[in-house]
Amino acid sequence: MHAKYWDPEIETLSRGELSKIQLRLLKHTIHSAYEHSPYYNRALRGSNFSPSDVASLDDVRRLPFIDKKFERERQEAAPPFGDHIAVAADKIVRIHTSSGTTGRPTASVFTKNDIEIWKESMARQFWAVGMRPGDVYHHALNMSLFVGGLCLLGAERLGASAIPAGVMDTSRHLMIIKTFRPKFIWGTPSFVLHLAEKAREEGTEPSELSIRKVIVAGEPGGSVPSTKRRMEAAWGADCYDYYGIADIWAPCATECEEKAGLHLLEDYVLPEVIDPETGEGVAEGERGELVLTTLRREGQIMLRFRTGDETCYELDRCACGRTHMRLMGITGRTDDLVIAKGVKFYPSQVEEVLRGFHELRDEYQIAVCRGGDYLDEVTVRVESLGGDEKIRDALERELRSVIGIRFNVELLKPGTLPRTLHKAKRVTDMRKIEAV
């Protein structure tokens, strides 16, 4: 009989005891940044901030925010890794890059110790979703420069058998699944749905395959209730949302088997949720932008990194017994926020409406442009099993009711839109192109 937790002591600490560990790690992190990073040494001295000034977790708020732009600037100023790196180049054993979702990719570097800690933290997250020694795991995230490929090391650490499938032909994925019968699969929500669609095209009902647990990341779909239900229905499996960010520490948060929020690894990262306009912290239960500070990363220390991801949090003990902060879903990136006709909305809100119509397929696109009267026009293009005008009219009404503006809906034949094998790009804003 296996234990309930990977690390029972850490995962069930009281808030007070957890804060003591965080403070010790924060002091060490800031001291290391001050002593070993040229950039942080200059920045902290310029702010009259010394590592000895850290007396409580609140003291981190005295430091300025950093973001993806900061990371690019540091790497351009001191190529290739940037002067915020806190180790010598010969200590770096792994070099990855970001996916480039928001612009030019940035380097993410790891020391030998960073990799070992990554394995341990990822094993804890896999354990939380029910993975145990002997289970077979199909890894369908990109295995190249994208850091998501590292996550299979956690499965190996806990004793599971990992299949490093990566991004390949969809039929080959299905062949491997049929051959090795994995219980777990991990991919982006759009790919998991596409794989189910492909299985049906080949005459196999996905729920009849061996998959019983689906982990999704890289897109907001795992935090969209109707999308999660669709994935679970397609595969006859439980679906768990996962959150990671290469700039910080990819194993950041995951749901447990209760599926009541994503457990943040608070002994690896120090979280804040802020009002993106004011930079001030928001209260528990209020939505804001997630800010993270690394607590154990050795090579690439990040202090108060603005992730650009919107969420809210809860601090009460989960029904599973874990005590670390829970993120109550990731709505989307602040960069993905669409403003049209004076109304703000995320693609995930549109997706939630679309998934409520069983006649619609999984792929969709959103296009925003200026109309002839210079007013914004928003069009949703989605594949439908039937081109019934009643479906289109009902969908337009529901989108207007939920989001508050008029949408044009185009129903397309199945197979019209390109399939997504990695992270889906849902929005094309023609206004930005027209303005050039």
TrEMBL record:
<dbReference type="InterPro" id="IPR028154">
    <property type="entry name" value="AMP-dep_Lig_C"/>
</dbReference>
<protein>
    <submittedName>
        <fullName>Phenylacetate--CoA ligase family protein</fullName>
    </submittedName>
</protein>
<dbReference type="Pfam" id="PF00501">
    <property type="entry name" value="AMP-binding"/>
</dbReference>
<dbReference type="InterPro" id="IPR042099">
    <property type="entry name" value="ANL_N_sf"/>
</dbReference>
<dbReference type="InterPro" id="IPR011880">
    <property type="entry name" value="PA_CoA_ligase"/>
</dbReference>
<dbReference type="GO" id="GO:0047475">
    <property type="term" value="F:phenylacetate-CoA ligase activity"/>
</dbReference>
<dbReference type="GO" id="GO:0010124">
    <property type="term" value="P:phenylacetate catabolic process"/>
</dbReference>
<dbReference type="Pfam" id="PF14535">
    <property type="entry name" value="AMP-binding_C_2"/>
</dbReference>
<feature type="domain" description="AMP-dependent ligase C-terminal">
    <location>
        <begin position="342"/>
        <end position="431"/>
    </location>
</feature>
<feature type="domain" description="AMP-dependent synthetase/ligase">
    <location>
        <begin position="81"/>
        <end position="292"/>
    </location>
</feature>
<dbReference type="InterPro" id="IPR000873">
    <property type="entry name" value="AMP-dep_synth/lig_dom"/>
</dbReference>
<dbReference type="InterPro" id="IPR045851">
    <property type="entry name" value="AMP-bd_C_sf"/>
</dbReference>
<keyword id="KW-0436">Ligase</keyword>
